[in-house]
Amino acid sequence: MNIHSYEKIWLVVAILLIVGFISTVTYGATAVGIDMVSDDGGTVNASALDEDPRFSDPRVEQVGDNEYEAYVVAQQFIFKPDPITVPANSTVTFYITSPDVIHGFEIVGTNANTMVIPGQVAELTVNFNEAGEYGVLCHEYCGSGHHTMEGSVVVQPPDEYESGGAE
Amino acid sequence: MRDASPGGTLLGSAVLFVILWETRSALGLIAGVDTNGTAYFIASVFVVAVVAFGLSVGLFQVSAMMFNERRS
Amino acid sequence: MGSALETGTPSFVDRFPQEAAVVKSALMSSFIALFLGAIFGLIQGLHRTNVFRVLDSQFYYTVLTAHGVLMVISFTIFFLVGVFTWAVVRSLDRPVEDIRYTWAWYGLMVTGTLMAVTAILGGFMPSVSLSADVLYTFYAPMQAHPLFYGGLAIFIIGTWLAGADWFRSWYNWKQEHPDERIPLQTFMVLTTMLMWYIATIGVATAVVVFLLPWSLGIIDNINPLLTRTLFWFWGHPVVYFWLMPAYLLWYTVLPSISGGRLFSDPLARVVFVLFLLLSTPVGIHHQYLDPGIAEGFKLIAMTNTMFLLLPSFLTAFTVVASMEHGARQRGGRGLLRWLRALPWRNPAFTGMALAGMMFAAGGFSGMINAGMNINYLIHNTLWVPGHFHLTVGTASALTFMAASYWLWPQLTNKPLFSRPIALGQTVVWFVGMALMSNAMHVMGLFGVPRRTAEPQYQGFDFVASFGSITELRMQLALGATLLFISTLMFVGNIALSSGSPTRSGLGKPIRQPLSPAADSPEVLDNLKLWFGIAMVLVVLAYALPLASVVSGSGIVDRGVSAAPMLIEGVSGLSPVAAVSDAVSRVGVVIVGVLV
Q1: ipTM summary value
Q2: Which residues of C fall within a CB distance of 8 Å from A11?
Q3: pTM for the full model?
């Protein structure tokens, strides 16, 4: 088969580019330890969330030194709890599920982003550094009130959090 | 004798405007340079209009003259 | 009307009048869908940017469902079956085996479309329980009326029968030409349809085994992650179903329009084989953020996806090389000066050239989407529609429109109504899309979500790193308006062409490639081999993920109940009342301005 020499060069460039892309993404996924959303969250009975100790009472709980777990329920058309209050300089693992339809959960302006599928639990670990307030929105169409579905994440200075700001 | 055809001038103007306009996003996102939207838009339209006018009256040519002379 | 053969090249309708009638009908259906879809697109563009809201926001989702289905199911696929019928008949130089069969599959496609669109438009009338406000992706547990799922199923069966029609033509041609290579256009059609057969396994299973019976009440529960995964099994290769007709036109028609010949037939075959192999085993890259799917499966999907860059890169080379060849045939010289010699005044050429240019940008934003970790920044934000309006919205749509300027006269023996308007149309599309898509990409980076009627929230503001969100909204609205105007220019031009006088000699030949089929290894034509490998790759990519979804949450998930998408208890006006209200408001404004 006759391949023009310019085309051979082009082919090599294309393959180098592809291999480059795959390498950088794989590096990000493995070496740097950026965790993707996976099946680690497990499954849950979507019609019996009030019997699940995590989701019957959506809240933030401390589980270690600067380590927290946040149990979040996304449903038409709110996030529970609202606001989600966490302390600064902490690592928070979110467990998010839905009792009704597929939703999205995104902390606006960040890459803390996941799908929320009824029957599945989305597990997402996020580092919070400075204090501040972030919006949370649902980005997956979930019904006629989808555009009203918002929440917030409030990151409090640690002393303020200790003195009872948490829910 | 005009060097650029009317179709080519129209095309080139559209492409030039798009390149100029997209550069604003690049400036903002990569270089962090904030630009006033309305002012930038007017400036882009003005630049494109000048280039289109120049091409259509033959004020300047569209080809890469240097390259041509070397290769011919 | 028989004067056509006296002077000039006979056109397609002269040589194959019955087939031309089917092709014309398919293209007409496609253009009608485009026109309706464009009206809905304009409504969306003005609504979500808060520039002009004519409906209550809950109807936005009805509009959005209609826009999605009409554009990427009806417009694109009707165009595909039209062009593919033309390409097979033309390249094999033989009529279809049975014209009644051809009309039958076309009729099925029309029936399916009408069913689905009726269900969707029912969403505008809350008093009727017919609706399908589920968007083009129809994710369970949101549930549409069974008419919607039934319509989609019938439409897809129509496309399957269409593929069988073309395979039959090729098979019978092969009996008469046993030692010849498959003509290039037919080769492209067959490989595309093989890919389609594999791809539709996913959506057909989701719809026929789960969603349709569920909507009819035959089964009570479904597993939303399973049906979602089956959807995306199809949801990625369908974009190649939209692109491959555009590639067919770029490879086989564009070089002749440029005044030259296709640079390489063998490489065109390689590209299409690569698409057959790689289009389907990548669907999980649409589910990077899904819980319930292990990271390893997502990584495999990612690597497969990155390799999909290869056939598009090869296409870029071949298409530009063919254009350059054409330009030099027309007298172009120099390193870059040959660009001037291209037929920029020909709207068919210009449209395809602009579409190709935008596709490069769309391809790169697609690579960003494919990056598993970067994807987290832009998933489900407005960036994603920004990306796909460049690819299906320009590479496919604008190429289809440009090709129509070239093909329609050959189907009707009537010249195009206005060449300057056609040329202007392609430029307006290019500028409108650049503005709209640029705004969408940037807003997506700032976190603005897609699929949302009112992305203006109470508790927080989007932060723009330059300019402002308001400016970006204006830009999006402006782009959407330009696109609508461009659509009107296109549809109007084609419609007005029916008033042109019949002429002969409108046939346009397609020249042989520079490097012919004979230059390539015969194994390329071994469709069974490539189909087999494609199936193996799909099984490798999907068997374990599907098994893990089923073992994790069951074939059906008894904990998940259906959520029928009906608009009940409308708090605002019904859409009919809302539209007449808006019209009267606009009327008051106009009167106020004039008086």
Answers
A1: 0.94
A2: 313-314
A3: 0.93
